[in-house]
Amino acid sequence: MKVSHINEMKGGWFIGNFEPTLYKTNDTEVAVKEYKTGDYGVRHYHKIATELTVIVRGTVKMNDVEYNEGSIIIMEPGEKTDFLAVTDTITVVVKLPGVNNDKYIDKGE
């Protein structure tokens, strides 16, 4: 049995092809992420991966749309979004497939 703690993982990511990780794979990436009210992630997209975000607790805004506890948001490759924690928030994020360096910042081009 392998045991770790989410606080030992970088940004909450615990499955994927990076270090540290609890389970190394290129198939997927999984994270449990915690945000404080006002935390902001810049507008970005993925060229290959599909990203699924589950709002476990709290309220967020993505593309100026508010999502609450229980919402599941699927961002397909090429779709752009930003992220604002309206309240303290916990999410689970899954990226399929796990692709290193597949996050592109939207520069408004």
Automatic annotation (TrEMBL):
Protein name: Cupin 2 conserved barrel domain-containing protein
Source organism of the structure: Leptotrichia shahii
Tree of life domain: Bacteria
